[in-house]
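Researcher: First entry.
Model:
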Amino acid sequence: MTSSFSLEGYVYLQGASRRRDARLEYAEHEGVLWVRVFSQGEDEEELARSPLPDVQIDTALGRTARKLTFSDGTVFETPDHEGFSKLDAHTHGARLHR
């Protein structure tokens, strides 16, 4: 079964000094769970992508924004805790959060 969803939030690119509006998409492709980050606005572009197991997921801390960090240093941040918990549930506790 293929599942997919998206989250609204912000992206911080490695070496950049400002955040950008972004959308994170989660989808299964050929049995691998992938997350991809797109900029929002007129010039929508893919900014990062990775298999879910290769992305660092920050531990939840109260109501603070949740973060995913990609291996290239790109960070996606969202205040959508409910949506993020759907993403986090797909790790099945198979890896440690860093």
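Researcher: Second entry.
Model:
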Amino acid sequence: MDDKLEAGLEQLALLWTVDHGGLCLKVKLENQRGFPDRMIILPGGFVCFVEFKRPDKKGKPSPHQTKWIKHFNKLGQKAFFCDDFDQFVEQMREWGQV
């Protein structure tokens, strides 16, 4: 699988999440730009929001995307930008999910 594109990276995260007994939901909100690409739900009540960006560094977060991530973090929710599968796994590890 080519994880050089954002879609490939999302697919790797989806496979990882399912392998760990969770859900990796693609959420679209009407009239709400920049909502994170995925909501990850893992056993034990863990929830986080992930905005995936292209691994080649060409994808930059939009102001709307940045606003959502900051808003979730201010609410005490786990949310982050991700442009690398190893970064995704490491973040899950930091949050005690591995």
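Model: Note on the second entry: The chain has three helices and four strands.
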